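call fold target=HTH luxR-type domain-containing protein
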Amino acid sequence: MDREIAGRDEDIVKLAYSLAIGPYRYREMFDLLGTRLDQALDKAKDSADGSDGSDFDEDTIRSVFEPLVPHFENAQSLMDMQGRPSDSAKYSMKMIDADSRPSALIDADGRIVYANSAAEEMFRLHTGKCPDEGLFERGHFKTLLSNLQSLERFELNKVISIFGMESADGEEMVKVALTKVHDSDGKAIGHISAIHISWFPDIGMQFQTLLNLTPVELEITKAVVTGLSLNDLAIKRGRSIGTVRHQAKSLLAKLNLRSQTELACLYSGFSKFNVKGQGGAKGELPETDDRVGCHVLLRSDNRVLDYELVGATSGQPVLFFPALLGGMTVTDDMHRALSRYGLRLIMVWRPGLANSGMDGPAGSDSFARYAEDIRALLDALGIKSCPVIGHITGAMFAYAIAKYLANRITGVVNINGIVPMEPGPHLAKVDRAERLRLYLMRHFPKIGRFVVHGALAKVDSGYDHEYLHAFLGDNDHDQRTIEREDIRTQFRQAFQKTTRQGYDGFTNELALASGEWQYLIDDRLCPVHNLVGQHNLHYTPEVMQDFAAGRDNFDVEVVQDTAHLLLYQSPDVVFKPVADLAGS
């Protein structure tokens, strides 16, 4: 058993160093750390009686993870030396979204892993389903499946073959290239993308001149590019098929090419693909929603507080502390709900996020200092009292404001709010991944910091959508929500704002979340209404109900047919109780 554990630790160390120089295999490392945590908890149960509901002993956990700390510290130094990555993943879901051409990832079984809106519209490609064989030219679908099943033998990022596919409306025949790429975990996967190769005589003449082609060779090139078979070309030219095939082989040898596919790729590269309908830079995001006003409060001691205002000027003011995931995302549904309930959100960034100044290492006085910032903001805006919304990690800041500004806060509404990592019956029910993140931040901050930075670096590399899919797990409600174009776009904008000053603001907030902050709740607070998604995987309804049991002024509402992203799935359920508090 000890040898097995030592081998697993060696694998974790190797993955940590690998992750320091590239975004692949983050999930594999995280899962191995989770396995180590499970083993630590199993050992700890033998050392603690569990009477306080904690199910772990800190000394036991320390003995399990301590040997890994120096390696993670070294890996963090390597990562810092590499600098912040930026969109290096050419075949990530983000880049596929940004492509105006039909584009999709496809696995070895021929099932679509991810398709952009153009591929869905033109070819009816949908996640989890195989393409319609009827759209392919005769024999091409079988060739595609054969190539996918033997991906390993092909070179990375090289076009394997080109297929003919008919658009779903039957009006257009399109060429589709299959390329071997890596997915977000470094595994081989197929990428199919429409290449709209138009034959323009002037480009053909330039191609002929550059490569010193004969008229016959140019005619063969045109046939290959436009999809005319060599047999049809032979009939058109009045030659035998054997003659035309020999001429085609001679052309390929002359250009040092191995196949007609490579000839088509060579020409398409020469003509810069002439992509139909493509305009503007790839990956360009729409400008920030002009319904949101951005502001900065500069205090006398040079502390900077960044905040945004959304909603009618005449609306009832509401403080809003957003989640790290999604940040200040405000959807059209949220705008309409704010209007219906007559609310105006004052959305405040915490220290180190967006333009808000860093506040030093997370500590016991961090919440009190931030409460003074909020007091200054309310004074500057002329607001005597208002309710507050806490979203996920924002919940602990909502509690802090309610504690330190008790005479100014009329009530708290938390949306899937986190709970303190203090001993209690709720703790064992927090899901495994969340416990791992917070346990590491609490007991081994050097490992925890690396894990957080590794996840953020993966997002920065372009794998934002892949990370979200993994983070949200097998949850149809959340998975459908992040497929919405407005959510994807605004989440990407939010990430850039959230990490504008680097990753440490993010890390410090998770350090606060893993620390001791239950004292913020132990005193009697104003009314606290906790909204929990019925299918939330991280802090489930059971977790919140166990935590809230016996606490004054705490109530829990389980929101049906919602999950982690409850705020975007059912904004009316959120803003109605807020409006009740604002009017009280």
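return ok
The first helix runs from residue 2 to 20. Residues 93-194 form a domain with the Beta-Lactamase fold (CATH 3.30.450.20).
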